[in-house]
Design brief:
Elements (H helix, E strand, L loop, with lengths): L2 H26 L5 H6 L6 H13 L6 H9 L1 H8 L2 H19 L8 H8 L4 H33 L6 H49 L3 H9 L1 H4 L5 H14 L4 H9 L4 H32 L9 H8 L2 H39 L5 H22 L7 H14 L2 H9 L5 H21 L10 H18 L5 H9 L6 H7 L25
Helix pairs in contact: 1-9, 1-16, 3-9, 3-13, 3-14, 3-16, 4-5, 4-14, 5-12, 5-14, 6-12, 6-14, 7-8, 8-9, 8-16, 8-17, 8-18, 8-20, 9-14, 9-16, 9-17, 10-14, 12-18, 16-17, 18-20, 18-21, 20-21
Length: 519
């Protein structure tokens, strides 16, 4: 076994130690308040948000899923990932600016359900249902990240460390720095991980281009039909790509970035970070590597390992550095998701259902406990063979997240939307997704599974809202009409500078999130 593998493990250990240092720095800046711990009190800069968006959006897909789906599906795999830019960038900006604005008007938002419950009459049904969707489908994603962590170290150490042992070791380290640093710690560590992601993928792609004869790509196009032509149903392909892009802006762990941003410009930074990374990190670079790998590493049992095969070929010192970079890729989303799940279960389920006035200290403690328990559950699921990472996410997690888009849009742009329509729409959408998933029934027109769920959810939301009581006028005015009057500069200034006579007044403080109408 190469000595460089041990060097790589040592560098990975140094990298993990660096994460602890950054997390401790973030922890020292964090007070005991719930908002500060979970969303950094809305104080993160645009550059930090930009970097953490890159890390949080793609994670294990960078070194595993992107190359795997290109290797397995050819150009169709690139379309599924690359085309999301068409839909996700405008939605991130338009919806994100609204969420950012309303969060700066004195709200105490920590989770996505906080906003939904506030807009839809403080409904407990809305809060708990949104929370269960967020946590339930996020479990798939966290499971994928644990699987990715184990697979990366198992392959890059030539089997020295088992997939299970690697996942446990990194999972424990990750849980520790999450507990220490909260959102600030996660954001700072994600920023470092984003830099490693880019550096690692640039290095691997450069190595492949320098060592691969040009005729290899020609041969690949001639020998493998999937490389040069779409071999799957076009309607499924394009609806999957569009659905993936529409779901990203309402990923619960992305949603918390809107709350965490200090300035509105950070929302644009999120859009650019997500879109540019999707085009380069998950499309162009993995495509070049995967198509070369079809000839150089043909017949891989697990296509997700094609990029790792090239890393193993690289010079020893580089192998060591890239081992740490690949581990960083898998950790960068899981940490955010675990923190998010803990906050949701503690605040939206435990506190809400008990109707308890829990102190900030106890809420933070409960969130850490729930985060740990959910992480252990995901770790257990990761021991199951899940196949291609991207396909698992597209089939299970993405359609579930997508159901949050109709009530999110309606919250700011349709005054008539109410809690009854939101609950009915989400329940019907879930029923449709699970029906097709569990029964294997053919989907009309061979559409991607998320499309019928999205359509059903939106139609039911509108229909039920129209035949039930009108929503509270004060809340509608606050979310739909008054929000348009606030400028970004006034909202940014109001966070730190008290209003003085003659200056624009700070937005009014809202009631505590959760004061509700009866369901």
């Amino acid at each position: 076994m190469s000595t460089w593998i041990y060097v790589g493990l040592a560098l990975t250990g140094v990298y993990l130690a660096g994460l602890f240092v950054l997390s401790m720095y973030g922890g020292r800046l964090t007070d005991i308040g719930v908002s500060d711990y979970f969303v950094a009190n809305g104080s993160l800069s645009s550059i930090v948000i930009f970097l953490t968006m890159i890390a949080s959006a793609f994670s294990a897909y960078t070194f595993l899923g992107g190359g795997g789906i290109a290797y397995d599906l050819g150009i169709a795999g690139l379309v599924i990932i690359g085309a999301i830019v068409v839909t996700d960038f405008p939605i991130i900006v338009m919806l994100g600016e609204k969420i950012w604005k309303i969060s700066k008007t004195g709200k105490d938002y920590v989770t996505p359900a906080d906003l939904f419950a506030d807009r839809y009459g403080g409904s407990t049904s809305v809060r708990v249902l949104v929370a269960l969707i967020a946590v339930g489908f996020t479990m798939f994603y966290v499971t994928i990240q644990f699987t990715g962590m184990g697979l990366v170290l198992n392959v890059l150490t030539d089997g020295l460390i088992s997939r299970e042992a690697a996942a446990v070791i990194i999972g424990i380290a990750m849980a520790a720095y999450i507990a220490i640093g909260g959102m600030r710690g996660v954001a700072y560590t994600d920023a470092l991980q984003a830099i490693l992601l880019w550096g690692g993928m640039v290095a691997v792609t450069g190595y492949v281009l320098l060592t691969t004869p040009s005729d290899v790509y020609v041969n690949a196009a001639q020998q493998f039909d999937a490389v040069g032509q779409v071999t799957m149903d076009p309607l499924y392909l394009y609806t999957a790509a569009a659905g993936f892009g529409l779901a990203i802006p309402v990923f619960p762990h992305i949603w918390q970035r809107y709350y965490s941003s200090k300035r509105q410009s950070a929302v644009w930074a999120m859009g650019f970070g997500d879109s540019f990374s999707a085009l380069v990190l998950l499309t162009i670079f993995p495509g070049l590597i995967a198509f070369a790998g079809l000839t150089a590493h043909g017949g891989l049992e697990n296509p997700d390992t094609v990029i790792l095969q090239y890393i193993l070929e690289m010079p020893g010192p580089v192998l060591g550095i890239l081992m740490a970079a690949a581990v960083a890729a898998a950790m960068s989303t899981a940490d955010t998701m675990i923190l998010m799940m803990g906050s949701i279960v503690s605040r939206d389920v435990y506190e809400e259902l008990l109707s308890a006035d829990i102190s900030d200290q106890k809420l933070s403690r409960n969130s850490k406990i729930f985060s740990g328990l959910l992480a252990l559950l995901a770790l257990g699921f990761s021991l199951i063979d899940l196949g291609l990472l991207v396909e698992v996410a597209i089939d299970l997690a993405i359609p579930g997240y997508l159901l949050l888009l109709p009530p999110a849009i309606a919250a700011f742009w349709w005054p008539r939307a109410n809690w009854q329509g939101t609950v009915a729409g989400l329940l019907v959408g879930l029923a449709v997704i699970w029906y097709y998933s569990l029964t294997g029934a053919p989907i009309p027109l061979d559409l991607w599974i998320g499309v019928p769920g999205l359509i059903a959810s939106g139609v039911v939301l509108v229909a039920v809202s129209l035949v039930t009581a009108e929503p509270d006028e004060e809340r509608v005015n606050e979310f739909v009409y008054e929000l348009r009057e606030y400028s970004a500069s006034d909202l940014e200034m109001s966070q730190n500078v008290p209003s003085e006579p003659g200056e624009p007044s700070a937005p009014p403080s809202a009631k505590r999130v959760g004061e509700s109408e009866d369901d």
